[in-house]
């Protein structure tokens, strides 16, 4: 008997090779090639030869604004760009137990309660387990169809028969096609299964949500081509020990990738956090050195966060530096600016910087808050609780302008802050809202002088 022909695929990027390679030439990752049998194409069926595709002029194409369907969850609609686009393929990834299935089941409940038909397909749980979770989330008054199946050929038949508006696949790693010899979850199966679902969505107009497992690095398991094939990629982030969850879009063909949705995990499911600033500042200490508040922008939404810093003398030759929620290298750079421009000796001090609440923010507008928090802890100076700061710090100690400063100031005024320290370049372009005083600064020396005079 002739040996079945096989090829090797990279698990990370999908690069194909006729032999095993230690390092992938595409993504440069080590030990990622796996052996897969060659997919045999059927020789039967109609041939497309002789049928020529005719191009059309762009000017002749009618522009159509896609009609979106509201998911009933405002935070999810925000991340999707305004709602669910019919015929789109959406990939939802996240750590185990983070709430992916809960979020999509809640979405199914909201949609079926509007009179739409939804097909929920699971390859990991039984119908009884789905029923238990559904009872915990609330009442379902519409038609939610459940199907426990992993064979994609049978799933396509059911979809064509019942014609639902929404299909949820939980999860893509459990799906398989019979004409592929490899096991479910392999590179070939995941790629072909996603391709089949994409063709189903585009040909029927059904919106399909796919749940994807993630690797230990936090990436969606399977070949990287999986993310390229879908229309939208959403990541559900958050710590298992924290109650909040953040839904972030890393790819979206129908909207911005800068928006985030914030949820809180409770016993009855995921609850939308309408005001993330209030949620992040809840429990903030007042009158303690090393604690300041800054304004960050996530998409078009301003979010106020607390930045904490702690400096202490070290007994070792090399001081320790730790950063949680922000870039570690950026913290080291800002500490070097403090030493050079203000003459503060931090070389014999351990330094710990934390963005409270578990948020991870890397935008430069947080620089001024980090610098001020480190100075506050080092000098044991208390920053008034009604003060907020934001701005980018350059290598010469200058405070540079940031984008969307007016939205940051408006959010600070809404949350009751009375003093806002911001770059001088932004100060002249903003009209101060009622109840808040704007103070423009040009360098970190001016910030330090103001804090000393008004502590």
Structural notes for this entry:
The chain is α/β, with parallel strands linked by helices. The protein has three domains: 6-37; 68-273, P-loop containing nucleotide triphosphate hydrolases (Rossmann fold, 3-Layer(aba) Sandwich), CATH 3.40.50.300; 279-453, 2-Layer Sandwich (Ribosomal Protein S5, domain 2). Helix content is 27%, strand content 25%. The protein is built from twelve helices and 21 strands. The protein has helices spanning 74-80, 100-112, 127-137, 152-162, 187-204, 225-229, 276-280, 328-342, 367-379, 405-414, 424-427, 444-453; strands spanning 6-10, 16-17, 33-37, 89-94, 117-122, 143-148, 166-170, 207-212, 232-237, 244-252, 260-266, 269-272, 291-298, 301-313, 321-324, 349-355, 387-389, 392-393, 399-400, 419-423, 437-441. Strands 6-5-7-8-4-9-10-11-12 form a nine-stranded mixed beta sheet. Strand 15, helix 8 (328-342) and strand 16 form a beta-alpha-beta unit. Helix 8 (328-342) packs across helix 9 (367-379). It starts with 5 loop residues before the first strand and ends with a helix. The model is unreliable at 42-47 (pLDDT under 50).
